[in-house]
User: What shape does this take?
Amino acid sequence: MKLLSFIRKRSIAGVITVVSLLLIINAGLIYYNKTIIVRNTAIIQKSDLIGSQVGLLVYELLHNLEMGIRGYGVTKDTNLLSPALDAINVADDRFGEIKMALDSQQYDPTQLGDLHKAYKEYINYVLEMKRVADLDSMQRFKEMIKEDRGLQVFMKWIEKGLPIIEYEKALKAKANIEYQSAVNNNLYLQVFILLIGLPTLGYVIYKIQSDERQRLSLLVKLEENNRRYIFNPGTEVVVTNPEHVIGNSIVNLQQASEFIENISEGKYTAQWTGLSEANQELNKTSLAGRLTNMRAQLEQMKREEERRLWTNEGLTNFSEIVRNHQSNLTELTTKVIQFLTQYLGAQQGGLFVLREDETGPYLDLTACFAFDRKKFAERRIDIGVGLIGQAYLEGETTLLTKLPQGYTYITSGMGQTTPTCLVIVPMKYNGKIEAIVEIAGLEKFEDYQIAFLEKAGEFVASALQGVRTTEKMQELLLVSQRQTEEMRATEEELRQNLEELQATQEAMARKQEEMNRMHSHENRTN
Assistant: This one.
């Protein structure tokens, strides 16, 4: 038995020694393969760069030279010539970069030099074509185009440039092979280490911790279930003390009971002790997380219900005000701005109604609430001028939390202060803006308050349209009545003229009869 125990202890030490050696060897090979990977990665990147730069000699330089000079020769537009000039300016730099890269690869620079010479000759030819085009020698320009020197350069690129690209492809392929070989060697090495090391380490760990695992297995399960299903504080799991694990489970259950009781009593401010942003993600599915989410949902439902009731009550009262005063524009606008400002808990408000005169439409400050003198003096606002005029043009609600300097002030017995929030809402109905309401306050307006203002604006806009329709109907009625009276006067005048005409005709008829009788009498006498 003593011998077996001695062998068992020594075997563990031997295994640990072997694993340590393997890890040291592994680290050395990893460093060696990393060096190979880094070197070949650099080769691949440089090959890709050189290949792309050589390709750009055709697709960028030659193409730009061709298109630039042809376009300039036809149109004389210097903008069309700019690609060719850019290609001329960068040609030497581009060839210099390629040559420098090829020199680092010990590639014969003669091929590139011949290609560079061909490009320079073609650049000189392009410049000569520009000079001919500037002289308006179009016949000569056409002849130069027909010579197609660009094709000759392209063929030179195929002769000299393609071998460079093929050379870079070969370098890249070789580097890829070495790179992949190094990666594979690392992979094989890691697999070998895993195959040897994991079972060995597992055996060592098993021998060292077998007794401890058996003793703590029950406590581990209890603590894991406690953290999984009740509350996970996000701290390190410590299960060496049985009393601590059991006591922690009892405390969590007591806290869960108290939390549920608070929620049932409507105390939505209840908090789970220990739950924070740091461990919130860990408690998504735990009892603590679910209870906290339920509390937040109930609180949100309560808040939304309060806002809904606030909105409905406000719209009901507001619609009553609009209905009771829609026959009088002054009273309507005064009551509207007073109610909206006070109901939102704001300190200042103004209602600008759309009007029109001989100069065109404008916005008129028809009613206001607690405006300062400067704001009250600016009664007329032209369309597109200032925040109010711009809001009419855009037709969208504007919310400002930083007001322009000196825009307005809220005055009280304690002095003056600048509002911290300003909302401008176009009041529109059926897509037509009838007025603009501006409300300023010391607290930021919430989304539901702005939505309430927009809905209230529909009521006001509808009422204003009704008022305008009524006013137009009254104006039309007055015009109709005036025209009717004028027609009646005209008819009376015509009737009198007709009676006078009839009387005149009757008098003439009587005179004619008397004359006829006189003639008849004279004839009988004679």
In short: The beta strands are 348-357, 360-369, 380-382, 398-400, 410-412, 415-417, 421-429, 432-441. The CA atoms of residues 12 and 71 lie 83 Å apart.
